[in-house]
């Protein structure tokens, strides 16, 4: 049994172990993403455009941008991840690959985790890489940029993991993008608050260890629970389609 009907992609065989199967799903998603470069580039371009246009639309004053720069970058990163979530399971659902993943002997939550990690590598990690350049554009100092990159490095995987639940729940529905936003944005708010709060505390010279510990707890909780919830949501969506 295989999990992919697209030509040129190595299938996941039913007899392989858990970790090789996860690695195969991960590599398949990476290859597919590079074949559909528009889906790969759209979140990054959106991230750059939001941060670039915000000073033009609000205020170009240095002090204002220094105070609000972390919030601008965090909101732009959140929306960029949200923009890419609709494609997390959509292509697999359209070509029948998702049904084959569900039928694999390997646990579905592990394969979903592999797909979510691939989504973060392709979407969240490039946002973190771009952050220092855009942080300079909004006049953040070096320490604030370093803390901001650290919070995004911890927080963007949480966004992908939580987002995978919404993407699975809205799979196959009309206006899925709108429903996905309504479901997921309230769950993103704690991550956004602590992400921006960490940078604000660092700029004031306050300790940030507590903020980072809470964000780390968010990440551990999301890694523990989100794959199971996403797998259950996928089974529900497939049974109703």
TrEMBL record:
Domain of life where this protein originates: Bacteria
Alphabetized UniProt keyword annotations: Cell inner membrane, Cell membrane, Cytochrome c-type biogenesis, Membrane, Transmembrane, Transmembrane helix, Transport
Entry coiled-coil feature ranges: none
UniProt subcellular location: Cell inner membrane
Any one Gene Ontology molecular-function term assigned to this protein's record: heme transmembrane transporter activity
UniProt membrane topology term: Multi-pass membrane protein
Keyword Chloroplast among record annotations: no
Listed GO CC annotations: plasma membrane
GO biological process: cytochrome c biosynthetic process; cytochrome complex assembly
Major subcellular site: membrane
Transmembrane regions: 40-58, 64-85, 117-139, 145-171, 178-202, 208-234
One Pfam family per UniProt: CcmB
Family: Belongs to the CcmB/CycW/HelB family.
NCBIfam families linked: ccmB
Function: Required for the export of heme to the periplasm for the biogenesis of c-type cytochromes.
Protein name: Heme exporter protein B
Organism: Marinobacter persicus
């Amino acid at each position: 049994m295989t999990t992919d009907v697209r030509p040129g992609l190595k299938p996941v065989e039913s007899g392989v172990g858990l970790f090789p199967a996860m690695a195969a799903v991960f590599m398949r998603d990476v290859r597919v993403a590079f074949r559909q470069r528009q889906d790969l580039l759209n979140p990054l371009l959106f991230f750059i455009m939001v941060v670039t246009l915000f000073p033009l639309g609000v205020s170009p004053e240095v002090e204002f941008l220094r105070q609000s720069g972390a919030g601008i970058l965090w909101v732009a990163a959140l929306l960029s991840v949200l923009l890419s979530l609709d494609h997390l399971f959509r292509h697999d659902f359209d070509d029948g690959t998702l049904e084959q993943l569900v039928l694999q002997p390997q646990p579905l939550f592990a394969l979903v985790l592999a797909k979510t990690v691939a989504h973060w590598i392709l979407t969240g990690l490039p946002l973190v890489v771009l952050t220092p350049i855009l942080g300079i554009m909004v006049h953040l100092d070096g320490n604030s940029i370093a803390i901001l990159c650290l919070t995004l490095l911890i927080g963007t995987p949480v966004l992908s993991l939580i987002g995978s639940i919404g993407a699975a729940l809205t799979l196959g529905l009309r206006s899925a993008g709108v429903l996905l936003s309504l479901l997921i944005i309230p769950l993103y708010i704690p991550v956004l608050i602590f992400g921006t709060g960490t940078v604000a505390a660092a700029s004031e010279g306050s300790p940030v260890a507590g903020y980072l510990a809470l964000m780390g707890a968010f990440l551990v909780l999301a890694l523990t629970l989100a794959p199971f919830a996403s797998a259950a949501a996928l089974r529900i969506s497939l049974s109703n389609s």
